[in-house]
Structures are given as structure tokens and as C-alpha cells.
Amino acid sequence: MRIIFALIILIFLLSCGNVSDEQAFELSPLFFSLFCLSLCISIILIVLLHRNRNLGRRFEELLKERTAELHKSKYDLETALKSAKAANYSKTVFLANMSHEIRTPMNSIVGFSELALDSESSPKTKEYLNQILTNASWLLQIVNDVLDISKIESGKMELENVPFDMHELFSSCRSLVMPKAAEKGIMLHFYAEPSIGRRPLGDPTRLRQVFVNLLTNAIKFANAGMVKLLSDIVNMDENTITMHFEVKDSGIGMTSEQIKRIFDPFIQAETGTTRKFGGTGLGLTITRNIVERMGGKLSVESAPGIGSKFSFDLTFKTISISEEEKYEKKNMMIEIEKPNFEGEVLLCEDNEMNRMVICEHLARVGLRTVVAENGKIGVNIVRDRIKKGEKLFDLIFMDIHMPIMDGIDASQIIINMNLGIPIVAITANIMVEDIEVYQKSGMNEYLSKPFTSQDLWRCLLKYFTPAPTESTQQEDNPPDEQDMAFQISLKQLFVRTSKNKFKDIAKALEEDDIKLAHRISHTIKSNSAQIGLTSLQQAASDVETCLKERHFVTSQQLSLLEKELNNAILQIEKMYPIVPQEASKENDNRNNEGKEIPDAKAVKELLDNLEMMLKNGNTDSLKLVESLRFIPADEMLKNKLIQQIDDFEFEAAMLTLVELRKIF
Predict the structure, then answer these.
(1) Domain-located, residue 476
(2) Within this chain, do residues 212 and 236 fall inside the same structural domain, yes or no?
(3) Cα–Cα distance, 315 to 201 (Å, whole number)
(4) Residue 193 · residue 233 · CB < 8 Å
(5) Across the chain, how many H-helices and E-strands are there?
(6) C-alpha distances in angstroms, 79 versus 75, 85, 86, 92, 95?
(7) CATH code, domain with 208
């Protein structure tokens, strides 16, 4: 700008120097005007440039501010995403823990109900046991999917397509909700219009879940009157049937504002409702989702003080009743008879009681079992068989959470050996994410804990061909006597393995070994659930949860755990006293008087066979226990060895056997 102004002045001066005085006088007004014009233009240009410079600065500042805001927004967005992911992870962890907590006691309910059904009992008792087993099995089916809400949210929920009888389904729903309705004096009315000659194809478990959710809600919010479940046929042709379903109640009802919110997750009609009536507020969300997945739409009509009505229409494909039998034969979920197999299974499981239960199940269908206390031992057993050229295992059951080497790592090592041995994960963790991990690690499938006999048999049928019935092993004792003896031995095993568990937890906490303390408390919880010790299970669960989340375990929690553990041990010892070693020795001497003591050669052969079995974790070593009682050896070492074999502690038994062999 300064240069332009100087040029204008210079031009003006030069112009003045080339004219005469007379001409200058005549032209002076013109030059003055030009000078003023140039000056004005210069000033205007200066102002414009200054303004542009200020605008530039403001633009730069604004740009910086906007950039800072964008960075802040991006940071806030990233923070929000991280928070959302953390919340979602917390929800997944909670659901996984809750799922595991429910499955653990259900293991005892299902297992002991099945064992009790095998024993002699009155028809009425068998009817009660069947009801317990049916409802427990149904609860497990729901737990496997409903608690894993992420499966529903991700659209991975699968529906069955099997024939079912609507009258039987309604009857099942009635038996489930009747006790609560009778307690509140509420009448129930169920009616299903019959589809004569045809059966709908669908998912009866999910449909029952829908009905029971709606019925329990109706009963919960009604203090008297009637609750109805009705089904009418809207349309029916040769291949399909459309049915209208509705659940009516004469309960407290809802306002229009409340109706808008009842399908939101974890929300009920009002805050006080949860405290007064109980519940999570999740049932209707799941119910609506299932109905929509089946092709329907859940509607609600309600008025305060009058009651509510939930309704929906569903269309099913149908088959004739004559075709139903053929269809069921193709369906793998029908009840199957107890099979008998020939083969050998490797079981990798660190929990003694779980090993005992699983080995018992496998032995009852004729399978020999080799046990490994962790994944590393299991891998070594497989490698040892390869090295010796021995027959490989027909199947491997792999627990997931084990010390030293977990099931995932062990499975990948075995799979990389290219042996073709199928591996089945056996675990209580069957969330969507867990199953995907098992599949990615190369496992063939999973068997969820707790499992029923039917679940196990269906799994085994995929990998074994049933042996002819003539080859079924003859049992010396009736099934009911076997079951009773097994239950007693399970409880006695709990006593033997749990007496020092609390001291072990206390020591681990003193040494700040949180992982070990957590594993011990988890073992106590799992084992107590196996034999129905609910108070001890809850106390152990509280300690386990705190340790898992790295929370401080209070002295009250530890004191309660110690008290419940001691009470449980005393209770079992009082009911099923364990015979002291000296008394056991005297009884053996009396019972075995006149029996020949094996010579040195026979003893060596016995110990050689036992050593091979213990090294391989073979449960057939249990069959050699009686023979061990007659060998001339140090009684303390011998009894210790026998006890370790009885407790499935094969690794420890191997060390004891080495000490025992030094005598010979």
C-alpha cells in the first residue's frame, strides 16, 4: 500500500515539473483533484486491506476454534464409544456370571432328579420327580438363551420348527403358573381351539416362554378374579394355520403413558411396581422380540382398575398327524433310549467332583475314561500315546477354565497335531461370544454344564456307534443301590477334598495370590452345588465374585464361608461317617481272612499295571484298589495311595506309588 501511495505522489510531482507556471496555475485544480482522488483510493485500499487482514485473523482464530471443537467432539465421541463398549462388556460379563450362577444349582436338580427316577419309588413320587425334571430342563433351555440377551440383540436367536400339540402346550403352561395363581386365589381359564387332523410346526419352547411370561405378569398384577389364555383359529388351509392368541387379566391395569414404556428393557409400568411386585422388567421385551421373530406383533389393551389384554396372531406351517411320527424320527431332540458304547474318552477337568460325576456318566454307557487334571497333562497324555504307537482316543472332553494350561490352549495344541480326534468343550460358559471362541479354536462343539443324560447321549451319538445290546455290561448291584452309593461317595469326596479349602483361601489372600483364592472359592461353590449345599454355595459365590472383580473381601464374608463350610462338613460326616483307616484295616482283615497274599512277582505286575494307568490318568486304576489292599507294604503309604486313587488325584497317586515301590 505504501508503494502505491509513493508512486502516485511521484507521478504527481513529475507532472508538475513538465509544465509552465501559467499552465500549472490553470491545471492546479485538476492536479489537486487527482491528488485527492488518489489519496482517497489509497485510504480505501488501506482500510480494505486492514479489514481483510483482520478478517483473515478472525477466520484463522475461528478455524482454530472449530478445529479445537472438532477435536473435542471427536474426543467426546471416542469417550462415549469407549463408555458404551465398557457398559456393553459389563452387561455381557454380568449375564455370563448370572447364567453360570443359575446353571450351577440346576446341575444338582437335574442330576439327582434323573438318578432318583431310576430308583424304586411310588407312582406319585415319580410324577413329582418328572415334573421337577421337566420344569428344570425347560428352565435350562430358557437360561441358555434368555440370560444371553446379546443373542437376541444381535439377531442370532434361532427358532425350532417341530410339530407340537397346542393343548399339551397349554397344559404345560397351566402346571407352571397354577401354584402362584392358587396362592393368590386367582382362577385360571385355558382354551385352545383344536386344529383337527393337523399339527402346527414351530418352536414350542419359545412359544411356551411367551405364554408363561404373559401369564406370570397377569397373575403378578392381579389380586383376585380370573386370568385367561385363549387361542382361536383365524384361518386354516391345506398347508398353514393362522391362530389368534390372547392373555386377559382383571388386574391393576395401565394408563396409556405406562403402555408406551412397558416394552422398554428393564422398565416396568412405574418405579414402585418393581419393589412391590418384583421382577426385572425384561420379560415383556423378550416376549415381544420372540413374537416378532415368529412373524407376529404383540399388542396391548389396558385401562386402570379394569385389567389388561395382550394379543398377537401367528401363522404356522402344518403337517398331518399321520406325518408327525415320521417327522419326529428325523428330529434329534426326541427322547432316546440309553445307549451302550465301546471306546475311550480323554477327560481334561481340574475339579475332582466334576471328574467323578462325568466319569460316572460315561461309565454307565460303557465308555472307558482317562483323566487329566489340566490341559498340559492332557496334551502330554496324547503325545505319549503317539510316541508309543498306542490307540488314540475316540473323543476328548475339554473343560475350559483349568490351571497351568486352559482348555482353549490345550485344544489348539492337540488340533495342530492333525490327529482328527474330535474335541468337545464342556463348560458352563455358553454365551454367544464364548461359543464363537470355542469354534474359532477348532473345537467341534460344546456340552453345557449342567447337562442331562439325554444331552450327553446325543453328543456321544455323533462320535460313537452304539454297541449291540447283548454286549451291555452286567451290573452287580441294582441301579437304585448304585445311585445311592454314588451319591454317598460324592459327599464323602467333598468332605475329604474340602477340609483344608478355607485355610488354603486364607493363605492365598495373605500371599496376595488373588487368582488362587478365586479358583478355590469357585471350586467350593461348584462342589457344594453338586450336592445341594445352597447356603455354602451362596457364601462361596459371594467371596468368588469379590475376588474376581478385585474387590476387598470383608471379614464377615470370610467368616460366613468358614462357618458354612465347617457346618456342611460336620453335617455330611454325621450322616455318612468316613471309616477311619485303622477301622477300615481291621474290617478288611476280617473280611479277607484266608485270602492269599500275592507273591513278589504278582505284586510287581500289579504295580506295573497301576503305574501305567496312573501315568495315563486311566480311571480303570480304580479297579485295582481292592488288590492293593493285600500287598505287603507300608500301611500308611498304601492307604494314602488308595485314597488318592479314589479321589481321582492320579498325579499325586503317581508320586505316592514311586515312594511305595522303593520298598520292593
Answers:
(1) no
(2) yes
(3) 10
(4) yes
(5) 25, 12
(6) 6, 10, 10, 20, 24
(7) 3.30.565.10
Q: Is 90 exceeded by the pLDDT of residue 352?
A: no
Structure letter (DSSP) for residue 266: T
Task: Cell numbers for 441, please give them.
Answer: 479354536
104 in a structural domain: no
Mean pLDDT check: name the lowest of 343-352, 498-507, 589-598, 613-622.
Answer: 589-598
Residue 647's closest CA among 378, 373, 374?
373
Residues 616 and 538 in one domain: no
Q: Are residues 321 and 195 in the same domain?
A: yes
Pair (184, 283) in one structural domain: yes
CB 313 within 8 A of CB 234: yes
Pick the closest to residue 249 from 199, 293, 288, 301 (CA basis).
301
Q: Which of 428, 458, 424 lies closest to 444, judged by CA?
A: 424
- Are 537 and 632 in a shared domain? no
Q: Which three cell numbers stand for residue 400?
A: 475350559
394 pLDDT higher than 60: yes
Do 222 and 302 reside in the same domain of the chain? yes
The reply to whether 396 and 463 lie within a common domain is yes
Give 230's pLDDT tier (boundaries 50, 70, 90). Answer: very high
Cα separation, 357 vs 539, in Å, equals 23
Alpha helices in 395-553 (DSSP H): 407-415, 432-440, 453-461, 479-498, 501-510, 514-530, 534-548
Is 117 within 8 Å of 129 (Cβ atoms)?
Answer: yes
pLDDT of the residue at 639: 77
Give percent of the chain with pLDDT exceeding 90: 14
Q: Domain total for the chain?
A: 5
pLDDT confidence of residue 627: 77
Q: What is the CATH number of the domain that holds 392?
A: 3.40.50.2300
- Model pTM? 0.47
Amino acid at 436: E
pLDDT score at 240: 92
Range of the domain at 569: 483-575
Give the separation between CA 562 and CA 327, rounded to whole angstroms: 55
**Per the structure block, which three cell numbers stand in for 341?**
458304547
- Strands (DSSP E) along 542-659, which ranges? none
**pLDDT tens-digit series, residues 521-547:** 888 887 787 777 878 888 888 888 888
- Is residue 174 scored above 90 in pLDDT? no
C-alpha cell belonging to residue 512: 496376595
**What residue type is 305 in one-letter code?**
G
Q: Do 46 and 74 belong together in one domain?
A: yes
Q: Quote the CA–CA distance of 187 and 223 in Å, as a whole number.
A: 11
Cell of 646: 479314589
Q: Is residue 339 in a domain?
A: no
With respect to residue 123, please indicate whether it lies within any of the assigned structural domains: no
What is the pLDDT, as a whole number, of residue 583? Answer: 45
